[in-house]
Amino acid sequence: MNESIGLIGLGSLGMPLAENILAAGYPLTVYNRTPDKAKPLADKGATIASSPAEVAQGSRFVITLLSDDVALKAVTLQDEFAQQVGAGGIHISMSTIAPQTARQLADHHAGFGAGYVAAPVFGRPAALAAKQAWVCVSGEAKARELVKPILSDIVAQGIYDFGDDPSAANVVKLAGNFMIGAAMEAMAEAMTVAEKNGVSRQALIDMFAATIFAGPIYRNYGSMIARQVYDENVGFRLPLGLKDMNLVLQMAGEVNAPMPLAQLVQGRLVSAMAKGRENWDWTGLAYGAGEDAGTTN
Questions:
Q1: Residue 130, φ and ψ in degrees, nearest 5
Q2: What DSSP assignment string belongs to 18-37?
Q3: Element (H, E) at 2
Q4: Alpha carbon of 264 to those of 62, 144, 229: distances in Å?
Q5: Which structural domain range is residue 274 located in?
Q6: Considering the chain, what percentage of its residues have pLDDT values greater than 70?
Q7: Are 62 and 116 in contact (CB under 8 A)?
Q8: What is the rounded distance in angstroms from the CA atom of residue 263 to the CA atom of residue 269?
Q9: What are the 6-phosphogluconate dehydrogenase NADP-binding domain coordinates in residue numbering (predicted)?
């Protein structure tokens, strides 16, 4: 059986994913809009393709890790791409996209006999590189089962199956990113009020991240928020966080589900963008709480 993998997109998550694929022994073909970025992978054995369709032509499994719905649809809604994935091939979409985009892609691929599995990932680049990320999957049952062992090999410490609806994994991913954003806002507000009462921001989060809020979001993001250094260790840029909050609110609007906290987080991100912070990590939304309280420089 041909277990060759194609990868389209070599951003902050795509590059460590490519290295994991090669380290796991899978034949790999890659494509990136900026070809120079792919050159280090060629030295490690990857084949560099000149187009997304060329990636699909030579790979049984094609992974896309692109920044947004527009970029993903521009590549994968082309008939040539789906034709090259072909019968027996599977497109694995790891991007954070709108649920309706996932349904559209699955329907389009089915017209060419190609499989489609949504597999968005939770984890910053370092976690992905260490194969300590978590992945949600949804899509046609047979395709999901074929994809799971590969995801376990290259990225995931855990895989969570959300069934046949190709949009379900993206619903979960957006819900999760909303919860992360809400947690960052909560941490920022708590640290700000503690600081104004003479308590160390770092001491506060050190306690909570080890006790009643033990977990990677409070431990890792909490430390960044305590230090208030948002332009270092940028794993997920602030504009992408805003894109995701916009998708969360779009998803909620389609089913008449009010999300006032999501609107607050979106507002923090919009404000940060307006102040020229587009190169910050998205944890930078937390800076707004200190600004409001007059504790930032």
A1: -85, 5
A2: HHHHHHTT--EEEE-SSGGG
A3: none
A4: 37, 36, 22
A5: 171-293
A6: 99
A7: no
A8: 10
A9: 4-156
pLDDT band at 2 (very low <50, low <70, confident <90, very high): low
Would you say the C-alpha torsion 11, 288, 265, 203 has a positive or negative sign?
Answer: positive
Alpha helices in the chain (DSSP H): 14-23, 39-42, 52-57, 69-76, 79-85, 99-110, 125-129, 141-154, 168-196, 201-210, 216, 222-227, 238-254, 260-274, 287-293
SS3 letters across 143-154:
HHHHHHHHHHHH
Statement to judge: residues 202 and 143 lie in one domain: no
Residues noted as catalytic? 173
pTM of the model: 0.95
Q: Across all residues in the chain, what is the average pLDDT?
A: 95
Q: Which of 134, 165, 196 is the last residue of a domain?
A: 165
| Tokens matching residue 22 | 């090669």
* Lookup: tokens for 244: 């995701």
Torsion, Cα 78 38 92 124, to 10 degrees, reads -130
CA 99 to chain centre: 14
Count of the separate structural domains present in the chain? 2
Task: Read off the tokens for 40.
Answer: 């280090």
CATH code assigned at 149: 3.40.50.720
Per-position DSSP letters for 176-220, written without gaps between them? HHHHHHHHHHHHHHHHHHHHHTT--HHHHHHHHHHTTT-SHIIII
Model confidence band, residue 297 (pLDDT cutoffs 50, 70, 90): low
CA atoms within 13 A on the CB side of 195: 20
State in Å, rounded, how far the first CA of the chain is from the last one. 60
pLDDT at 26: 95
